Amino acid sequence: MKSIAHLPKEDQEHFAKCDSCNQYFDMRNLTDVFRHEHGALPLHIISFSHAERLPPYYKTLKPLTLN
Fold first, then answer.
1. Are 14 and 20 in contact (CB under 8 A)?
2. What is the dihedral of CA 24, 30, 34, 35, to 10 degrees?
3. Which of 27, 45, 47, 56 is the most exposed place for a label (fewest CB within 10 A)?
4. Residue 7 class from Cβ within 10 Å (0-12 exposed, 13-18 middle, 19+ buried)?
5. pTM
């Protein structure tokens, strides 16, 4: 992003300007932070082995109501 002037002040404080490419990036987004570490090691794709796919029938389950 070349400018943050269009963003509200509350959001502007979360952006930093990269010294290498002079673009702004959101410091709340860790992927953006790593992408602006120019010259660093390449990003790795992290697989989440602990995650499980939901079964196809999950849409037919009734919602759980908590009292």
1. no
2. -50
3. 45
4. middle
5. 0.54
